[in-house]
Design brief:
The protein is an alpha+beta fold and 518 residues long. Among the domains are: 234 residues, 3-Layer(bba) Sandwich (FAD/NAD(P)-binding domain), CATH 3.50.50.60; 94 residues, no CATH class. Strands 1, 2, 8, 9, 10, 11, 17 and 18 form an eight-stranded mixed beta sheet that branches. It starts with a strand and ends with a strand.
Length: 518
């Protein structure tokens, strides 16, 4: 059996390589030891650069149709359980209003959430339509290369027969335990097996708990979550809002856990926080957190891509995106060299361009896990802390905090008269609302405001003024003269300090006081 390019592995790197090579008209063969594509969700965040690549290949519409759109990816939520207390949210994936335009301007394509077990069949199917030959149940054994090509020995896992494949080039895309990278002698840096983690894929209708706060990731902080894994429990949305994946750690000092349905359901119920929710376990698996990258991606005519050369936790959703981008970078270069339109030296650029990216994303993914440390410390959930102390610390988050100052104590007040103090005088509070001096909390003023005397005042301009909240009531001090009012119409930093910090949250002003509008 002969071919120009042999691709070993059908994950994101291998299946996308098949798609790219087919589109470029390169004769190729894909082999994988598995009987079909991925059967669990695993990788899922598909970023804009990757969608642009798939757009170039004519499959963006398929991805958009099958993926969860960006507006449902929502905020990253931190909680004690899905049905428990919510501790906070972090706006991610471009959902923050201040960043949304940046994402829109950055690309004609939008990112989406597309689980690996849905993405791979799209890539493999489209590659096959364009002429890819794909052999499942075919396991790579070893290879030998010479000046003209590579001879690969593989085994048919159904018949047990060995077969020999002769290729001009080989792409090893056989995952985090890559036999191709091992046999090619690629050098690695970093550390392996830092922590143990387990995935539990399950079905449960959690619509009532999450539909009002959509997210891809719900991080669950509970005692015991610091053992192995990535420091927290996770409930990851696979399909809204009925298919999920729970992630929980285990101690690598012991054997991998043997999870039956009862044990898996118990973990899931702890993360949900409601044992009454019906749960159906679909699959369980274990994996290790790694921080490893190949310092070189090529050995002669053998190249490696994807998890074979960069191994890291799923933080930031970098895995499948980087894998697809590896293959995209390599395949057009192979096509040009095979056609004779470029010399073999072009292939050296694959190493130079992609190896630094691999190291960067491995470091970034692991650093993201470490950056949760200050959150754990602030919540009293540092590794090794006593579980009872953890629970007490979490319970203390619900305690009342000291009340803020009463309304109208944030700054000095001034009186407006019905006849002599105009709203122009009131609007001269501009210096009080400069960012370094003032943090307004009052609601936005309407375009016009009716005062109690039925006088219509125009809205003070551009967010720096105050609006009159009312006239002096019976029994209050008399309003000042016009000159006194004008003399006191500005609120200095000293005045703010004298009257104390702003109260927590907006509240109704007293008669005679003025509020800045925001």
């Amino acid at each position: 059996m002969t071919t120009d390019v042999l691709v070993i592995g059908s994950g994101p790197a291998g299946s996308s390589a098949a798609l790219f090579l087919a589109g470029l008209g390169v004769d190729h063969l894909v082999i994988t030891k598995y009987r079909w594509t991925a059967d669990t969700p695993r990788a899922h965040i598909t970023n804009q650069r990757t969608v642009e690549i798939l757009r170039d290949q004519g499959v963006e519409a398929d991805v958009v149709a099958e993926g969860t759109p960006s507006h449902l990816m929502g905020d990253t939520v931190f909680c004690t359980a899905l049905a428990g207390d919510e501790l906070g949210r972090v706006r991610t994936w471009g959902t923050h209003p201040a960043r949304r335009a940046d994402y829109t301007l950055a690309s004609p394509s939008s990112h989406c959430d597309l689980p690996q077990n849905i993405l791979e069949p799209i890539l493999v199917g489209r590659a096959a339509e364009r002429g890819s030959r794909i052999r499942f149940d075919t396991e790579y054994l070893h290879h030998v290369q010479d000046d003209d090509g590579v001879t690969v020995t593989a085994r048919d896992r159904i018949t047990g027969a060995e077969l020999t494949i002769r290729a001009r080039y080989v792409i090893g895309a056989d995952g985090g335990r890559s036999a191709v990278a091992r046999d090619a002698g690629l050098p690695f840096d970093g550390r392996g097996e830092l922590a143990g983690s387990m995935n539990i894929v399950f079905d449960a209708d959690l619509t009532a708990l999450v539909e009002h706060r959509p997210s891809v990731l719900y991080w669950v902080l509970q005692p015991g979550a610091d053992v192995g894994g990535i420091g927290m429990g996770v409930l990851r949305m696979v399909r809204p809002w009925t298919r999920w994946m729970a992630i929980w750690g285990y101690d690598l000092a012991g054997p991998p856990p043997e999870l039956d349905d009862a044990a898996a359901t118990a973990i899931v119920h702890d993360l949900i926080g409601d044992d009454s929710v019906p749960v159906t376990i679909r699959s369980t698996s274990v994996w290790t957190v790694n921080e490893q990258w190949a310092t070189r991606y090529r050995s002669g005519r053998v190249f490696c891509a994807g998890d074979a050369v960069h191994r890291h936790p799923p933080s930031n959703g970098l895995g499948s995106n980087t894998s697809i981008q590896d293959s995209y970078n390599l395949c057009w270069k192979l096509a040009m060299v095979l056609r004779g339109t470029a010399g073999p030296g072009l292939l050296d650029s694959y190493d130079a361009e992609r190896a630094p990216v691999g190291e960067q994303i491995v470091r970034r993914a692991n650093r993201s896990v470490e950056e949760f440390g200050p959150i754990f410390a602030a919540l009293g959930l540092e590794p090794g802390a006593d579980p009872a102390a953890m629970r007490a610390s979490m319970a203390a988050r619900a305690d009342d905090t000291p009340p803020g100052p009463r309304p109208a104590r944030r700054c000095g007040r001034r009186w407006s008269t019905r006849t002599t103090s105009s709203t122009r005088t009131v609007s001269r509070w501009d210096s009080a609302t400069r960012p370094a001096r003032w943090c307004p909390t009052a609601p936005r003023s309407p375009h016009t405001t009716a005062t109690p005397s039925s006088t219509t005042t125009r809205r003070p301009g551009r967010g720096r003024g105050c609006r009159t909240a009312g006239w002096a009531a019976t029994g209050t001090a008399s309003p000042p003269t016009t000159s006194q009012a004008r003399a006191g119409s500005r609120c200095s930093p000293a005045s703010r300090a004298e009257h104390g910090p702003r109260p927590r949250g907006p509240s109704r002003p007293s008669w005679g006081s003025s509020w800045p509008h925001t």
